[in-house]
Amino acid sequence: xxxxxxxxxxxxxxxxxxxGFLLLLTVIFLFSFGFKILFGTSLFINQIFNKDxxxxxPTKEIFLGDLTIDSIPEATNSATILVSGxxxxxxxxxxxxxxxxxxEIKIASNSFNFEIKDLQKGENKxxxxxxxxxxKEKKQTETFxxxxxxxxxxxxxKEPADQLKTVKNEIKIIGSTAKENVTKINGFPIxxxxxxxxxxxxxxxxxxxxxxxxxxDIYGNSEEKTLTIIKEE
Length: 233
What we know:
The chain has one helix at residues 2-55, and strands at residues 66-69, 75-76, 81-88, 92-97, 100-106, 111-116, 122-132, 137-140, 144-148, 155-159, 164-166, 170-177, 182-185, 188-189, 197-203, 207-216, 222-231. The protein is an alpha+beta fold.
């Protein structure tokens, strides 16, 4: 019994020594590598969260500036036109005529009016560019086309001759002009054919009759001719 008990005691001491040795190795490992692993793990997790935060970018403020131009004439008989419009959140409006910047106006209120001068004969291209100094934003309108001419329209009276004397109760007025022109005889509109020819009957009174033929083109230019017809009894 003494020998067996002695053997058990030696075995127990070896187990205790082995456990102590393993415990010592564990402590040494933790101090040597454990904190590094723990620090590296925490750094990795921190990078993940920082990466997610980096993906969240600030939302840019939506700019709701507006520029509206009122109706611009398609044709005019003046080299100067008046333009009006509405503006919101912009500071100025630049005017471009035939690809050239002709003016830039600072806007103090929402509505504006200004003159555009020196239109050239024929077709003119016009657009507007609004600018915001604070928001660094711009807005350009569509390009407007404006036709300019100041010559009087042509009109030809084929019948009757001026100062004609007749006994008829009515007479035909026959003539021609450009087919786009508005044509009136004594204030009443008449219809032109596709070539611009017209024909209309006018009743006559006894004595002197004034017949006024008026044509107005798309630019607003007008021409008028007056015929004097004498109705004899």
